[in-house]
Design goal:
The protein has about 100 residues and is an alpha+beta fold. The protein has a single domain, classed as Gcn5-related N-acetyltransferase (GNAT) (Aminopeptidase). It has two helices and five strands; from the N terminus they run E-E-E-E-H-E-H. The protein has a five-stranded mixed β-sheet. A hairpin with a 4-residue loop joins strand 1 and strand 2. The longest helix is centred in the middle third of the chain and has 16 residues. The protein is globular.
């Protein structure tokens, strides 16, 4: 399945504590735990049907921009989010 990441909208589903993208019934997500002024990213999941299209990167960028706007510090337990931050130094100041 081809999905154009530029046209996809990421949403912060606060009820389920995850940033998510829904594409034709497939749900990609970054799960988090919110503690005071910290957000702990714990897991990123993209269904195989959507893999390799940059969706996880789009979610990570959206989540980190949202976190920055809210003034939270980041704890990146999720290997994907941790690697994304390492590759994008503009987000390293968010890491606690």
């Amino acid at each position: 399945m081809d999905a154009n990441p530029k046209s996809l909208e990421v949403h912060d589903n606060t009820a389920d504590s995850q940033y998510e993208v829904n594409v034709d019934g497939y749900l990609a997500k970054i799960e988090y735990i919110l503690r005071d002024d910290r957000i702990i990213f714990v897991h990123t999941e993209v269904p195989d049907a959507l893999g390799g299209q940059g969706i996880a990167s789009k979610m990570a960028r959206y989540a980190l921009e949202d976190v920055k706007a809210k003034g939270y510090k980041v704890v990146a337990r999720c290997p994907f989010v941790k690697g994304y931050i390492e590759r994008h130094p503009e987000y390293q100041s968010l890491v606690q």
